[in-house]
Amino acid sequence: MSAGGDTLDKLVVFLAKRDGIDKLVKTFQYVSKLAHWGAESSRPEFARRAKSWETASGLSRKAFRSGRFLTGFNNLRRAPPGEFGALAVLANAGEMVYFFFDHFTWLARAGVLEPWLARRSSFISAFGESVGYVFFIAMDLVMIRRGLRQERKLLMREAGAGKGADREKELRRIRVDRVMRLMATAANAADLVICIAEVEPNPFCNHAVTLGISGLVSAWAGWYRNWPS
Predict the structure, then answer these.
(1) pLDDT (tens digit, 0 to 9) for every residue of the chain, 229 residues total?
(2) Which of 94, 108, 123, 125 has the most CB atoms around it within 10 Å of its CB?
């Protein structure tokens, strides 16, 4: 099969996933935000269209995530005991609050509910989301550190005992896992910036460039993690 055909097949698989569609539309949302910022003073008509695209993309993502809070609820039920138990509970609880109240934000902005609900539900959603991201980042950093220690032990044994197929396979697994966790950390950190802009508005986080770049970092890191191997 040609490289182009293989890429197309992977794209089809990627877009068949809910997360794949979300990352694509998120890219549209934040590219249009940057386009609106860049054209606002020089090309007002283009900026207006870009803003409409951004708004439509944001609402589409919220509609597509309907019922997603059940994933967080299910993860809460299955939270592992031991050292990651508390971190997993807090992370998934924050994510569940985020997705649950996101329904009200979507319905209010779509005109189904009272418009004033959008601001309040958006704040609660962003607050829960930020709590979740902090603990997801903490768990990933702990696992990255463990992976580095395990990799060093394997490399030291390799120097003394020679290479083996099992050792090489384990090293590859650790390195792939580290890359995926780094991508998750980058995405969560970028989304945390967006949450802070909602929870505690400030000139840096609320600037269109900061939000645009953060959104694209999150989208593309998620794209990388969900792309078929």
Answers:
(1) 566 678 888 888 888 888 889 999 999 999 999 999 999 989 999 999 999 999 999 999 998 888 888 887 787 777 666 667 788 888 989 999 999 999 999 999 988 999 999 999 999 999 999 999 999 999 999 999 999 999 998 888 755 555 677 888 899 999 999 999 999 999 999 999 999 999 999 999 999 999 999 999 999 999 999 988 7
(2) 125
Residue 20 CA: distances (Å) to CA of 7, 108, 116, 179: 15, 26, 31, 19
What residues contact residue 84 under an 8 Å CB cut-off, 6+ apart?
139, 142
CA angle, 183 as apex, 177 and 184 as ends, to 5°?
90
**Number of separate helices (H) and strands (E) present in the chain:** 8, 0
Query: Six-digit token pair at 49?
Result: 């269209």
Domain spans, the chain = 3-226
Report CA torsion sign: 104, 134, 205, 25: negative
**CA 95 to chain CA mean position, Å:** 11
Dig out the tokens for 210 from the structure. Answer: 């900061």
Q: Is 147 exposed, middle or buried (CB count within 10 Å of its CB: 0-12, 13-18, 19+)?
A: middle
Write down the H helix ranges in 42-164: 44-64, 69-77, 85-109, 116-161
- Give the DSSP letter of residue 206: T
| Tokens representing residue 118 in the block | 């959008």
